[in-house]
Structure formats: structure tokens, C-alpha cells
Amino acid sequence: MKNLRFSSWNYAKKYFVGLSCVTVLAAASFIAKPVLADTVETEPTNTSEILMTTNQSQPSTDVETVTPPTTETSLNTLKTELGSQASNGTSEDTVPQAVSSNSEVPATSSADSYTGGDNVSVSAKNNLVTSESKGYHSDEQGNWYYADGNGNKLTGAQIIDSVKVYFDENGIQVKGNFASDGHYYDKDSGAMLTKRYVEVAGNWYYVDGNGNKLIGAQTVDSVKVYFDENGVQVKGAFAPAKESIFSPDRHYYDKDSGALVTNRYVEVDGNWYYVDENGRMLTGYHTIDGVEVYFSEYDGHQAKGEFSGNGDTGDFYDWDSGARITGKEGTPKFIKTRSGHWYYLNEKGNQVTSIQIIDGNIYYFGLPTKKYYYGMQSRGELVYAYYSDFIPNSSRIYYTNPETGAAWKNRYVDWEGSRYYMGPEGYALIGEAVVNGQSVYFHRDGKQARGELITENGVTRYYAPDSGVRVRNTKLTIDGVTYSFNADGDGTIISD
């Protein structure tokens, strides 16, 4: 190819024109330089006043998004033109270095970035935002970032256009949640909020003038409220939770408003409580609205369908109203406690014990085996009853009906591998007896003899293993000894 050369005058003229343009544009660039100044401030360590913008949305019109000055475009254009002209000259003709250096921009790998708006690339790998301008940018997932003048994502607490915001370790702006600095940032604008209630995942918090969560008992807008150790407002429960349930200083806070409740009954987890004029939980015996009531000394719940003392002792309180029943005259009645146990109150409202005849049936209250509380009705059990002053021959063995507790009569009972027979009086037979026309025998503990030789008053008799009926008119060898039993069942040894 034929080399072309410029005359020295033409070359000097073109170089002079180019140099003049560079000089003018460089001066313009120097004047425009303040436009590129970074408007982002790092949050000061001591802040006495909280700055809030609650109606800000992203990207905010208040946030300055700086675009490159037109001088840079002119330089690029000039570079192109001069480069084109130089290509027509010798290889020694080059564009001045000052022009080419102003055309550089940060670059990111397209494989590790994604577009977040017009001409914006948000890098997930190197924490850079490559854009024609600094400012707020979003990604395809709807996350917001802020890029500084070098394309770096901001992280941590920042102040942008006088608004306090926060970006996590990945540069994502925190919105609608508490950041790692303990402050809450608005779900729309991302601005740090102060002096207001905020909700996160169904829990309510209150942030003070510095944006910090309130903890413990507080008064907010003249309303007494409480926040637990995590800052969550207590609603529909007693606080402080860390206090012992024996503590009288536990207060109840309304399930809707969270306000301290006073002078009323409150329900928590199916139990009823009463809080006084100071909002404190009552315990022990009280008369409220003319009704005698009792609140557990242990946890303060109102006694309903239960006794006031330990082990179902003391006074009994009505299932519905919680009013004391025992000690008040009225109609005798059976009562059932919350624990499922049955008792009987007489006409004076007092709890009965031991053997009782009620409506012609025998009942037992209070087991000497201490399997249950004293005075508790026995149901579905074999009872070894002690003597009662009210019932003759009451030191007997009874079996109580599983449904009603009344003693069974005239029937066999199998209990723990042994068989008993409850006679017409409701107690177990003992000794020789005739049941359903059959001669049988019961030991002193009421257990029927089956497959056994019984000798009484010098007479030996044998009772069949299955039925327990006395054998008659037969010969049997028992333990190597042969017996002959006559028509009455009396046995005689015939060989050994």
C-alpha cells in the first residue's frame, strides 16, 4: 500500500486544532468536576437527632443520581475523529495521552452480573455496580443498591441526601425489617424510622427517638405497655415472663391494644385470672362482686371445678362461676373436678369420706391405699374399706362400678388375676358359700379357692381349678396323695 504523508504545514495545522480542542475541553472538565462529588455520607457514630423520610420510594427523586458530563462525550468524539485523521498519516501520528485517559470506565464480567435498569450492571461477584451514573439501582429480584462514584456498592449504615438508610453485607438495602444495627427501616422508602410502632412478622415493636427498640415496662402516648427482652410487645399475656410464677408483680396486657389491664377478669390459655387496680395478678382467697372466689397461690389461676387446697382438700369452687360451694348449705350432690375425680358434698356443703349409702347404693370416698386423694370417689376398683361409724360391718371388700361408683352386688368380679364374689350387701363373700346353687370357698382376703385343698374343722375339701366348685363323689390324686370325696365333698385319704 502506498504510504501517504501530510505536508508539514497540514500536519501542524491539524495538530494545533486538536490540541486546542483538548485544552478547551480539559478546562471544561475541571470546572464541571464538583458535579461528580459524592453526596453519600457515612453515618456518624454519635447522633443526637434522628432524621426521617417516611414517604420516600426507590429510586428516590431526592437522591442525586449523577450522570457523566457532556465534556466526556465530546472528548470521546474528539478521540474518534483524531484517531481517524491519524490513520491517514504516518504511524508516528498519535492522539495525545491526555485525551485517551479520560475515556476509561470500570468494567465487570458479563457472566457475573445482571442488568438492573437502563445501562446498569449489578455485579454479584465483585460487589461493583457498573453504570453510566452513581446512585440507586435495582436488580431483577427487586433488590435496591446504591453505587458510589467508583461503582462500588455501599454497605452498612449510610446517610444519603439527609436520609438514614442501611445496606447489608451484600449491598442490598434493608426495607421493612430490622437491620443488624438494631434499627428499623421503612418498608417503602428504606428510611430509618423513629418514635413509632413497627410490625415485623406479626410482632409489634416500638422504636424510640434514636431508632432503638424499647424494652420492659414503658409508657407510650400515655398508655402503659410492655416489651420483652427482644423488644416484642406483650399482648394477651402476663409480663414479665422471666419473673417467677409465684411473683405478685406480674401484670396482664390487653390482647388487642397491648395496654395494661386493671380491675377485671382476664383469660389466658383457658384459665381465668383477676388483676387489681394496679394491674397485678391476685392470688389466694378474695371476695369479688360479693362472690367468694379463690386464685391459686402457685400461678394465680382461678379455682373452677377444683378444691383450693393441695391434693383436692379445702373448699370446692363451682365449675362455671368459680364461687365457693363447700360449707354452704344446699342440696347434696356429686361433683367432678377438673382432674376428672368425683366427690360428694352433703347437705351442709361438706365433703364426705369413707363408706356412704346414697340413694340406697354403697359408695366409697377416700382410699386408704393413698392411691388417690382423701375423699375421692372410687370407681372401677376393688376397695378394702375401713370401718365406718355410719355403716355396720363396713370393714369389707367392695368393687365399685366403673361408671357410677356404686358397689356391685350379687356378681363375680375378676381383679388382678383373682376372682371375688360380691354378695347381696355389696361386699365380698368370705369362707364357705353357696353361689348360684354351687358350693364355693373364699379366703379371708375375698379371693376364691380354685384348684385347692381346703381343710377346716378337720374336714378336707377340694375346689375345682376352673369353676372353683367343690368336687363330690370322686377320687383324685393331688400332689401324689389319693383322696376319695363323698356326696358332701368331704375327702378321705385312701393311699399315699
TrEMBL record:
Keywords on record: Repeat, Signal
Span of the signal peptide: 1-37
Keyword Repeat carried by entry: yes
Region (Disordered): 49-121
Biased composition (Polar residues): 49-59, 82-121
A Pfam short name: Choline_bind_3
Swiss-Prot/TrEMBL Cell wall-binding repeat ranges: 262-281
Keyword DNA damage: no
InterPro entries in the cross-refs: Cell_wall/Cho-bd_repeat, Glucan-bd_rpt
Superkingdom per UniProt: Bacteria
Skewed-composition ranges (Low complexity): 60-78
Record-linked SUPFAM superfamilies: Cell wall binding repeat
Name used for this protein in its record: Cell wall-binding repeat protein
